[in-house]
Amino acid sequence: MTVTAPTAYSVPFRLDRSRGPRVVRIVNDGSETVSSLRVTLLGSGLLVPVSTGTLAPGQSLALSVIGPELVASSIAVVRWFRPSREEYLWRFSF
Asked: How far apart are CA 22 and CA 66, in angstroms?
């Protein structure tokens, strides 16, 4: 019996840090619309906005980090669903 491993799924997002360090855009560079995209921040500071219904290819979501200090030690966790309803997580640091 031969077991075939599933094809790897690349994270469909690109970070645009051109307005950083407090504003970061998540750009959907993938080929499919993702849904229920949510971003949470682990560490100091607050992140606004934190969710959107869908993000189509080419669309972006601006994240504004607010707080008294630069959040260099903070990590953002991005959660989304593919059209197949599979849930994925990705994290990045500031």
From this structure: 7
Q: How confident is the model at residue 7 (pLDDT cuts 50, 70, 90)?
A: confident
Question: Which residue from 30, 18, 26, 22 is spatially nearest to 57, judged by alpha carbons?
Answer: 30
**Rounded to whole angstroms, how far apart are CA atoms 56 and 35?**
9
CATH number of 13-93: 2.60.40.10
Where do the domains of the chain lie? 13-93
- Residues 60 and 26 sit within 8 Å (Cβ to Cβ): yes
How far apart (Å, rounded) are the C-alpha atoms in residues 36 and 54? 6
Tens-digit pLDDT profile for residues 42-53: 887 788 767 889
Taking alpha carbons only, the member of 41, 8, 49, 14 closest to residue 29 is 14
